[in-house]
């Protein structure tokens, strides 16, 4: 689901109740941080407006299970449909498993599958109240840091003081072929464009968890080689300490 949204495709959530649709919709949008979903997002679509799913533009839409029969009668193609209650895909585009860099995806999946065990160990280690939300957020942030955390190395400041992003040097600088392939596609999305534009315009810099982790990432690798490929996520997958109070 995350992979499909990152490439700004069309995704439909199906569930038996409004609460599940709303919570899952908001949660998956939140996992995209530091990127922002730029397209149509309707947590719960009224049955009377079901035809909206025929739109050719990207969207994330939730519908109740009672509308599923009507949905299946509509001419929709290349749409990812997820049954949240049955925990299965009702329709796939077919390449969802090939979108994200394999090693990073595997590490992220491992963390999510072992989240309860990791959470228990972190609470014992830190004696703090580490939450599941913070663990999941941290995992996704570090996933994105591995992919685009070196962007600041390719922000050129002109004589006028304007910050200009150097696209090709940024993409080519990653030593992972699979990440470069992903960036070929991802860099064409509105999400990535918005991410870069925001950082080009903010001369004072951007603050937030992503920027903190990106700085930590850059401090651990040579400036000429912005790819400690999978190092951070691998350490998370091995259940090493990673939650730090800032």
Automatic annotation (TrEMBL):
<keyword id="KW-0344">Guanine-nucleotide releasing factor</keyword>
<dbReference type="InterPro" id="IPR051942">
    <property type="entry name" value="DENN_domain_containing_2"/>
</dbReference>
<feature type="domain" description="UDENN">
    <location>
        <begin position="1"/>
        <end position="206"/>
    </location>
</feature>
<dbReference type="InterPro" id="IPR037516">
    <property type="entry name" value="Tripartite_DENN"/>
</dbReference>
<dbReference type="InterPro" id="IPR005112">
    <property type="entry name" value="dDENN_dom"/>
</dbReference>
<dbReference type="InterPro" id="IPR001194">
    <property type="entry name" value="cDENN_dom"/>
</dbReference>
<dbReference type="Pfam" id="PF03455">
    <property type="entry name" value="dDENN"/>
</dbReference>
<protein>
    <recommendedName>
        <fullName>UDENN domain-containing protein</fullName>
    </recommendedName>
</protein>
<dbReference type="GO" id="GO:0005085">
    <property type="term" value="F:guanyl-nucleotide exchange factor activity"/>
</dbReference>
<dbReference type="InterPro" id="IPR043153">
    <property type="entry name" value="DENN_C"/>
</dbReference>
<dbReference type="Pfam" id="PF02141">
    <property type="entry name" value="DENN"/>
</dbReference>
């Amino acid at each position: 689901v995350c992979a499909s949204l990152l490439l700004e495709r069309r995704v439909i959530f199906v569930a038996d109740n409004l609460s599940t649709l709303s919570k899952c919709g908001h949660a998956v949008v939140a996992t995209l941080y530091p990127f922002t979903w730029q397209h149509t997002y309707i947590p719960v679509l009224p049955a009377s407006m079901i035809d909206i799913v025929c739109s050719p533009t990207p969207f994330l839409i939730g519908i109740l299970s009672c509308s599923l029969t009507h949905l299946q009668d509509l001419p929709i193609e290349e749409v990812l449909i997820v049954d949240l209650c049955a925990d299965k895909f009702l329709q796939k585009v077919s390449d969802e498993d090939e979108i994200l860099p394999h090693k990073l995806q595997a590490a992220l999946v491992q963390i999510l599958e072992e989240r309860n065990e990791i959470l228990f160990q972190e609470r014992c280690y830190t004696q703090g109240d580490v939450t599941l939300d913070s663990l999941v957020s941290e995992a996704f942030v570090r996933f994105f840091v591995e992919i685009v955390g070196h962007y600041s190395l390719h922000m050129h400041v002109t004589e006028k003081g304007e910050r200009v992003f150097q696209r090709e040097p940024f993409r080519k600088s990653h030593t992972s072929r699979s990440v470069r392939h992903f960036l070929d596609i991802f860099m064409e999305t509105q999400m990535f464009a918005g991410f870069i534009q925001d950082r080009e315009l903010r001369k004072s810099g951007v603050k937030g968890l992503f920027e903190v982790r990106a700085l930590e990432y850059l401090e651990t690798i040579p400036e000429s080689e912005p790819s400690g490929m999978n190092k951070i996520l691998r350490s998370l997958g091995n259940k090493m300490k990673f939650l730090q109070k800032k």
